Amino acid sequence: MTIEVTLAEKTDVLSVPVAAVLRSSDGDEVRVVNDQGTITRVPVTIGLIDNEYVEIVTGLKGNELVVIDVDAAGTPAAGG
Which backbone phi and psi does 11 adopt, to 5 degrees? Predict the structure, then answer.
């Protein structure tokens, strides 16, 4: 038997896949594709995290093309 307990839940928030967030001791970042087609890192403040998504509290507007992964050739696999 499995029990699932929800400790916190939010709706209508900006979120990205967990794989899109780069976490380090310097802070959290998300890679985005800018208007020139170049990948840049954007500092973000995160909120709630589940197994699939991370809430983005500050740092993104919601219209960015977020990079989830970069293949060996450096080509972004993006979502957003």
Answer: -125, 160
Burial of 47 from C-beta contacts in 10 A (0-12 / 13-18 / 19+): middle
Task: Give one DSSP letter per residue of 3-57, joined into a string.
Answer: ---------S--EEEGGGEEEETTEEEEEEE-TTS-EEEEEEEEEEE-SSEEEEE
Q: 39-49 and 21-24: which strand pairing?
A: unpaired
CA distance 58 to 46: 7
Q: What SS3 class is residue 58? A: strand
| One-letter amino acid for residue 73 of the chain | A
Both tokens assigned to 9:
């839940």
CATH T-level fold of 15-73: 2.40.420
What average pLDDT values come out for the chain (80 residues) when binned by 10 residues?
Answer: 75 91 94 93 95 95 90 56
